[in-house]
From TrEMBL:
It comes from the Bacteria. The lineage of its organism: Bacteria, Pseudomonadati, Bacteroidota, Flavobacteriia, Flavobacteriales. PANTHER family: IMPACT FAMILY MEMBER YIGZ, IMPACT-RELATED. Residues 22-126 form the Impact N-terminal domain. This is IMPACT family protein. InterPro entries: Impact (IPR023582), Impact_N (IPR001498), Impact_N_sf (IPR036956), Ribosomal_Su5_D2-typ_SF (IPR020568). Belongs to the IMPACT family. Pfam families: Impact_N (PF01205).
Length: 202
């Protein structure tokens, strides 16, 4: 089974992308997120920013191999807001992202079809204004070894172009590296063949 170790996400927050639909105003926002606990504070901030808004609807997705997501209509008719927003997250092929749409009701009812279209289009416009970046999934490993093995370890890190996360160089040394997920098995196998170095992954 092929390991997927790259994903697309947005590089930074996109704010206040406005769509007007029959006097209703829809403001689109997109945020990069790392875990579910990031979501509530961001939504709370939006509600504080727009205290008179009628709805703050949203969808988010997290993960690459194990994907989790949520879509919320915030009082709009069932599946007329959250799912159209989530559909755009899927359409752009991104993850680790929260897209929220703040609505001010303009006095004219849009109907379910009109709402689906307005939320979808606001989410689409918002993500079209985002900078989408490709990221690589990495796993960390800590190498423990005697100072006399330093040259061997450093040569290995350089040869395999591994990312150095942290180092603690005493008589007993510890170096933490980040390894691209696809290469973890190969790198660990090679490291274990260097007998004087112990490896811990997490």
């Amino acid at each position: 089974m092929e390991i997927i170790d790259t994903y697309k996400t947005i590089s930074k927050t996109v704010s206040e992308i406005l769509l007007k639909e029959r006097k209703s105003k829809f403001y689109g926002y997109a945020f990069p997120i790392q875990n579910e606990s990031d979501v509530k504070p961001l939504l709370d901030n939006l509600r504080a920013l727009y205290p008179t808004a009628n709805h703050v609807c949203y969808a988010w997705q997290l993960g690459v191999e194990h994907v989790s997501y949520r879509a919320n209509d915030d009082g709009e008719p069932n599946n007329s807001a959250g799912m159209p927003i989530y559909g755009q997250i899927q359409s752009f092929g991104i993850t680790n992202v929260l897209v929220a749409v703040v609505r001010f009701f303009g006095g004219t009812k849009l109907g379910v079809g009109g709402l689906i279209s307005a939320y979808k289009n606001t989410a689409q416009l918002t993500l079209e204004n985002a900078r989408i970046v490709k990221k690589i999934l990495k796993e960390r490993a800590t190498l423990s070894f005697e100072y006399s093995e330093m040259d061997t370890v450093m040569r290995f890190i350089k040869k395999n172009r591994l990312e150095l996360v942290s180092q603690n160089l005493q008589m007993k040394c510890e170096i933490t590296i980040a390894v691209r997920k696809k290469e973890v098995e190969k790198i660990l196998k090679e490291l274990k063949s260097l007998h004087k170095i112990s490896v811990k992954t997490y």
